[in-house]
Amino acid sequence: MKDSFWYPIVFMLIMVVIFASILSVMYRFSQDKILRQERDSYQIAVLSTLASAISDYTGESTESIMAAYPESYERFVRSRDYPELDRESYQAEVDEEILAYCFEIRGKGLWGSMQALVSTTVDLRTILDFNIVNQHETPGLGARIEEDWFLSQFRDRLFVVNPDAEEDISQSYEFIAETQTPENERQLRRVTGATITSDSVIKMLRDEFNHIYKYFRNNEL
Amino acid sequence: MTKKEIFVNAAFRENSVWRQILGICSALAVTNLMLNSLILGLGVIFTLTLANFTISLIRNWTPRSVRMMIQTLIIASYVIIVDIFLKANLPEISKQLGPYVGLIITNCILMGRAEAFASQNKPFDSMIDGIGAGLGYTLVLLVISFVRELFGFGSIFGLRILGDWWISWSIMVMAPSAFFLLALLIWAINTYYYKAKA
Lengths: 221, 198
What we know:
The structure holds 2 protein chains of 2 kinds.
Chain A: H1 6-58, H2 62-67, H3 71-76, E1 77-80, E2 89-94, E3 97-108, E4 113-120, E5 126-134, H4 148-151, E6 157-158, E7 174-176, E8 187-189, H5 195-218
Parallel strand pairs in A: 7-8
Antiparallel strand pairs in A: 1-2, 2-3, 3-4, 4-5, 5-6
Chain B: H1 3-13, H2 24-29, H3 34-57, H4 67-89, H5 91-97, H6 101-105, H7 108-118, H8 123-153, E1 155-156, E2 159-160, H9 170-173, H10 175-197
Antiparallel strand pairs in B: 1-2
Helix pairs in contact in B: 1-8, 3-4, 3-7, 3-8, 4-5, 4-7, 7-8, 8-10
């Protein structure tokens, strides 16, 4: 029977149906939980990116703000919809005063796309905080862009003077080796063995930051 | 063969990496950090054990002409089950394991053990073979990653072992070091175990 023409086809079909059904049922029962986990994880990343600005204004520590999630998220973070900007946008707000903006930015890494959250001052020129939320870089090499020592280099950093000015400050940053100590404020340490990924991060920030700045300026926001 | 012999054979005597040179791609790719190696190793042990068991269970009904498609289907299904479970219950570990899911599906050891053992032996024996082969593979990953992480980052499982005086060897973080270390490991085992035994 196993040598007949139809047996392998029918057997294969039965196996595909069995395993596809098991996977479908398992996914169906886990779907809500997975979506909830993803939403929480994203909101925590947004709150974390805006936490320093909230902390500076309210005097609460960033740890207590993070520990109070989801209440603190509801209290301080507002989602904003900017037509044509085509990205998730948020603002930290206390007593109707805007403390900082947070934008989702995207770029191309070595192996795939990267997604990050960047918070800025209300004049959109200085980076307050920066977190990578999704990347597909080499584990142990490029994936180390998520480490705090790398990300903290971008915190409280002037990034846009004026895109139309002769000197574009975002172009003046340069990478040095991870083991070196920066000699001036324009030098940033790159991840060892991940030159392309490190360069991609700064390119993503430069392109997206300038794009957002121009959008706000052109729309007089 | 006794159960113990099956296990020892799969894990050590006929180790998939140093004896059969299988699973090399992932052994080179992920061994710069011990935690990544351990996570991948656990994923492979789980998938290999259950895939071997299932393939062996249906071996008498599986036509030869489609057996490899069936094996791939079973292996991929178990990997997806692991992925869904982790995403729903352990999102942090899932984030770390994420890049390796594809590597588990394409790991030659899984197809190798399915073809060489599970498709010709009883389910329980195949399960033991899966556990042994998975542990043998994990052992190799951990040995290589121990050296690479220690010299490349000065740490073990992310914990700083060597002080600030230590200057990290960049070569250990990069892929070429895995080639050298794996070659040294295979040479050492061949010289001091197999040749000495012969």
